[in-house]
Amino acid sequence: MCGELGIEIIAPHQQPQRARCPQTHHSFPPKRNHRRFTMAAAAAAAASSTLLRASNFSSARPVLRSAVGHCILPRSAGGSAAPICTRSGSRRRAAVVRASATGAGGAPAAALPAALLFDCDGVLVDTEKDGHRISFNETFAEKELGVSWDVELYGELLKIGGGKERMTAYFNKTGWPAKAPKTDEERKEFIASLHKRKTELFMALIEKKLLPLRPGVQRLIDEALGKGVKVAVCSTSNEKAVSAIVSCLLGLDRAEKITIFAGDVVPRKKPDP
């Protein structure tokens, strides 16, 4: 997918160790000195082979998110740009991609990145705990399957990429509902029907704007597009869900300028690629 954009993805850094509060069991990223994330900072990040990264799903424990208010680019002890923990999700990330532009006389330009690649769930919007999980549970309830995924369980299930794959793995491990078909082929159709309904319920949440964009996302995208930087969203979620988030929350004008690579358009979903 990235080859179509003519870009080079920068390898991720090692995730910093997270501190844990013994009283509440909440996990917090290490304290750092921060500065606001702008396109200039993105250019510096591209030059130093850094990328924006998402943190874990906090081991499925409740996390105080109010402090994560702005898109920021931390600095390492040496003063260079360091990775940023952007939110929950099993290794979800928005990658800053290196440009190959050169300046006058053939010298490397202190240029903007060639493109910004965003994951969707947990990067553009905090969707997992109060979006996808709720929609899965509403679907299970409608079909009277006797299944409900709590936050801790769903945090573990997020290690499996893709909603259909997630449900299949869960039922294979815990046992299929009594109402589920018996053959493998029929079960695939059953899972597909559940996922279709789950997507409809999730899109309704998005259309009602019950799950807002994360702070700073729209500003960063506007700045990137305004400076001619390509913007794309790469996600294992299905294309309808991702398109709904981009068009409903960012607006049609921006959506027309953003390329979407969704889970349904690749033969094998992450982490395989």
Automatic annotation (TrEMBL):
The lineage of its organism: Eukaryota, Viridiplantae, Streptophyta, Embryophyta, Tracheophyta. PANTHER family: CBBY-LIKE PROTEIN, XYLULOSE-1,5-BISPHOSPHATE (XUBP) PHOSPHATASE. Gene3D superfamilies: HAD superfamily/HAD-like (3.40.50.1000), Putative phosphatase, domain 2 (1.10.150.240). It comes from the Eukaryota. InterPro entries: CbbY-like (IPR044999), HAD-like_sf (IPR036412), HAD_sf (IPR023214), PGP-like_dom2 (IPR023198). This is Haloacid dehalogenase-like hydrolase domain-containing protein. Signal peptide: none annotated. It holds the Pfam family Hydrolase. One of its GO terms (molecular function) is hydrolase activity.
